[in-house]
Amino acid sequence: MIWKFLKEYRFWYYLYFFMWVMFLVNFCLYKLPLNYFFITSSLNVTILLLISIWKFTQFKRKMTLLNYFKYLEEIDSLKSPTEEAYQGVIENLVKEEAAQALVSKSQLENLQSLIKMWSHQMKVPLSALSLMVQTDNLDKKEVQQQLIRLQNYLDILLTYMKFSQNKDDYRFEICDVKSIVTDLVKKYRVAFLAKELSVNIEGDWQLKSDKKWLSFAISQILDNAVKYSRDGSEINIIMDDSSVRILDDGIGILPEDLPRLFDEGFTGFNGHEHQKATGLGLYMTKQIFDQLNLSIKVDSQIDQGTCVMIFKD
């Protein structure tokens, strides 16, 4: 502690020593009696020692407060301008840390809630597969459909984790949207066949974008179209030079649900009623389109179907 004190006030001790040497030189140059000098120096050293003890006591108390304080109120007794300035800095840092901790806690709670929801959704296809095994009634198409559903839920969670950690790996290139859509239709062909859905693809769209993320985003829209379409209905995918529209003849979306459709964790009436939504798919879709400089618009009417339009800003 003493060495820290001397380091803190070393300038003043250097200054005092310098002044002492200068007085000694003056006494010597003018041939003044040195005994006067030493008497005065003794008095000055005594005063310096008393002041040093007083300042060291203050310094030790201040260091103890700074080393062990837990609350800002404990260092309110530090009143010098610089100490008050440091208190302001510490207060701002504490506030920032508290705000960050609150955000982290909120993100953790949201993530835990979403993982619970996701886990519940994973149980549906797993239960279906388990039932087929137990009854020895393994239908190949049904097994494929449940596996695709599991893969889709897993993709959603992994994509969400990447976004929540602010990680991305975008690679922009010229993409053939028709080719992407065609591959997705082939991927979901089992689901289409299971519900006896017909798919019409018209037009094409050449777009500079990230193929992987664009494919994921469109897959979520197509997956919803399949989920909420009626058996034996039709899904139309129409493209032009600046947009793609995905239209279905499904159950539609309630008007009050449309404004919140892309909110994180929002499932809406259809998601609750049919137990098919995680609340992540469309949220991630909107986030991806924002990153790709694309816009998405949804128009829907109950019992008449839904039209999802993706277009360039």
UniProtKB/TrEMBL annotation:
The chain crosses the membrane at residues 12-30, 36-54. One of its GO terms (cellular component) is plasma membrane. It catalyses: ATP + protein L-histidine = ADP + protein N-phospho-L-histidine. InterPro entries: BphY/WalK/GraS-like (IPR050351), HATPase_C_sf (IPR036890), HATPase_dom (IPR003594), His_kinase_dom (IPR005467). Keywords: Cell membrane, Kinase, Membrane, Transferase, Transmembrane, Transmembrane helix, Two-component regulatory system. It is an enzyme of class 2 (transferase). It comes from the Bacteria. This is histidine kinase. It comes from Streptococcus henryi.
